[in-house]
Amino acid sequence: MITDRITVLRERCLNRKTISQPNLYPESMMVYDAESLKQSEELASWQSRIGLRTQNRLQNINFEIDEQELLIGRAKFATYDESLVKETKEYLKQYSRPSGQTGHCELDFSILMEAGISGVKQKLQEKLSTSTLEKKDTYKSFICAFDGLSEMIKNAAVVVDSAIAASVDEGRKSDLTEIAESCRHISESAPFSFREALQLNWFAILGTTMADNAVLVSPGRLDRILISFYQNDIENGVLDKAQALLLLECYYILCNEFIPDGLAISVMVGGTDKDGNDITNELSYLCMEALRKTKMVYPTVGVCWNKNTPEELTDLAVELISKGYATPAFFGDETIQKGLKHYGALPEDSCYYINSTCVEITPGGGSNVWVASPYFSTCKILLEEIASQAEVSINSFDSFMKAYFERLGEKIKEAVFIQNENREMRRLYGRKPLQSVFTKDCIERGRDIDDGGARYNWVECSFVGLANLADSLYVIKEEVFKKKSTSFAELKKMLDENFEDSESKRVRFLEDYPKYGNACREVDSVLNQVQNYIVEQCEKYKMLPDDSHFIPGAFCWIMHERLGSECGATPDGRCAGFPFADGGGPAQGREKSGPTSGIISTTAWDHSSFIGGVAYNMKFNKNLFNSLESREKLKSLIITYLKLGGFETQVNVVDHETLKKAVENPEEYRDLVVRIGGYTDYFTRLSSGMQKEVMLRTEFGEI
Question: Could you report the per-residue pLDDT of 102-137, keeping only the tens digit for each?
């Protein structure tokens, strides 16, 4: 039975990951690296050496396959003697591992789907024959990478052949034979069927991740990548909807087998073409429906919502959300496209983007965009300015804002310098031949992705704690400047002591002043002022290698908890060490006026300029959605947010009592999935601080 198959595969995955999490750079990979680099020491070209290293990594990747699996893709690595591993690590110390982000993108799968591995290699050979000097080394490295990818897929076919020989079940032998034949075919040729295209998509992701250390490469727009294969199979009677759904479910489980918990990997569906036409198709629904039985942390499936998105797709996502699925999300397609065009993305790329992991937006197939590079703790910077003002106090709130902005501006300037240094080190000591072939313009330019070959090379940074900052600034405006009831020196002392002898003032700061998230124009305008300054400052800077943009976001992942733990008490009444608000939404528990007011505040500033990502989390009691009427209200709320210019929203539908039980009995709730700061995670695997943060978020009891 299909249900039994997915139930079994899901349980096996959860059990395996309970024992040990996947390692994306195992010790065996180090051995392969040392082996290759020793053999290539006489070569002058680092690009050539990395090409050979990439090939060696790939051709040494092996696989394992369980009964019931319909796709192969769980990598298996050899183990080596401890002394050899120690010797290997010592040898590799001479090779720099440059800083800076990797992966976090969607590959250009189209070249594989159209030409296959052999077709791409032929194109590379043609480029090599007409190129000169350094480009020859680049194309040679690309060819080495694709040779390695082909060998990796052939390794998978051999493993399946062994499974066929060992199987005594004729039905299973038939499944395995189809898998083996698919692997042999796509190891050289373009995929012919939906199964082959899906399998090749996975091999490209796994190969790029393992060969190039490109972490969190996304499955991407599966409904666009696979639709022609799906339609062809349906028309020819070799596939039906249920079979396609089963393959997608198996694919989703592979994602969970491969990616360690606590990260993110994304699928997007729907959206428009460059002319604004909605292009939702049958696979859009199946990609969403595949979440129902798998019900794990990966992947998240985002609906690129626009005014022409079919109501049925919206309804499906809302239905899953209302039943407690944390993985669906809604992205404001118009808002995001507006931002991408502002930053120079071509029309055909502005409509083909991906949330590269959580909510950071990168152009699909052409991205060397670094996301969350770096995170800024906006409130910690505020505390630095308060300390400065305690020495020489300023006369007006406007002057104080100017001083804070100057301090924030210096942090931005320093960050740009560091990121550009990282970019240059990556150019000198990095290189990713396989990812380069899968990235638009690298082949045409004859340049590796780390050498500026990609179409888009901007850097996205992220500003954490914006809601706490706005609330704090408003308290300072009222307390220090308007009422003059607290001086900066007194405020600094209170905050340094974590309100130890000033609890009544902390409560006043927290309760007696309006807070962001309640449709209060005065507070919302403070955040709008901060956002405008951030955009203005970021636009002043250019990034290597091609004067790309430095683009802001309010994406958090888990950094609102981590940076909050490192920050002292703040004037909004937040105690030292407590998590900041996540994303672009209000701080925990401060939406006192209901979800609509929360939406009005959250959309009171322009999200389109924050292509680095803006997440808005909502949380509702699970008992609220027992009727179609209540689900319709939730849908209206989500659509209102998106129509007002909202960037992204996700919803936790879970009650406080369930979360409390999960803390007390984690084994019984090991697969309870919740939304955090744009990504999903197993609640029981979160740190105690993050668990408390989720539990303290405002839980709406009505809608």
Answer: 999 999 999 999 999 999 999 999 999 999 888 999
b/e burial code for range 295-314 (CB count within 10 A of at least 16 → b): bbbbbbbbbbbbeebeeebb
- State which H helix or E strand residue 3 sits in: helix 2-19
- Over range 237-247, report the average pLDDT: 97
Question: Is residue 521 predicted with pLDDT exceeding 80?
Answer: yes
At 384 the three-state DSSP class reads helix
* Distance in angstroms (rounded) separating the CA atoms of residues 64 and 76: 6
183: exposed, middle or buried (C-beta count within 10 Å: 0-12, 13-18, 19+)? buried
Taking the domains of the chain in order of start, what are their residue ranges?
1-99+113-211, 217-329+617-703, 375-614
Is the Cβ–Cβ distance between 618 and 649 less than 8 Å?
A: yes
H or E stretch including 76?
strand 74-76
Tell me: the pLDDT tens digits for 564-614? 999 999 999 999 999 999 999 999 989 889 899 999 999 999 999 999 999
> What pLDDT sits at residue 165?
96
Type of residue at 82: E
DSSP string, 467-526: HHHHHHHHHHIIIIIIS--S-HHHHHHHHHTTTTT-HHHHHHHHHSS--TTS--HHHHHH
Per the DSSP assignment, residues forming a β-bridge with 377 are: 464
The residue among 570, 2, 540, 586 whose CA lies nearest residue 240 is: 2
> Which residues have CB under 8 Å from 692's CB, separation 6+?
579
Token duo for residue 410: 């210096």
Report whether 348 contacts 393 (CB < 8 A): no
Q: CA-CA distances (angstroms) from residue 360 to 85, 367, 703?
A: 37, 12, 29
CB 502 within 8 A of CB 510: no
Which of 533, 543, 544, 391 lies closest to 470, judged by CA? 533
Q: State the Cα–Cα distance between residues 496 and 482, nearest whole angstrom.
A: 23
Report the pLDDT value the prediction gives residue 3, as an integer from 0 to 100.
Answer: 53
Listed in sequence order, the residues at least 6 apart from 407 whose beta carbon sits closer than 8 Å to its beta carbon are 381, 384, 385, 388
Token digits for 265?
């990997």
pLDDT exceeds 90 at position 270:
yes
Beta bridge partners of 305: 332
What angle do helix axes 134-166 and 110-130 make, rounded to 10 degrees? 140
CA 15/CA 21 separation, integer angstroms: 10
User: What torsion do the CA atoms of 511, 512, 513, 518 make, to the nearest 10 degrees?
Assistant: 60
In this structure, the dihedral spanned by the alpha carbons of residues 77, 20, 107 and 156, taken in order and rounded to 10 degrees, is: 30
Question: CA 30 to CA 443: how far, in whole Å?
Answer: 28
CA 219 to CA 203: how far, in whole Å? 11
Question: Where is average pLDDT lowest: 2-11, 23-32, 43-52, 411-420?
Answer: 2-11
> Are residues 369 and 460 in contact, defined by beta-carbon separation less than 8 angstroms?
yes
Percentage of the chain modeled with pLDDT above 70: 99
Sign of CA dihedral 599, 604, 606, 612: negative
Question: What does the pLDDT average to over 285-291?
Answer: 98
Which three-class secondary structure string do you get for 392-457? CCCCCHHHHHHHHHHHHHHHHHHHHHHHHHHHHHHHHHCCCHHHHHCCCCHHHHCCCHHHCCCCEC
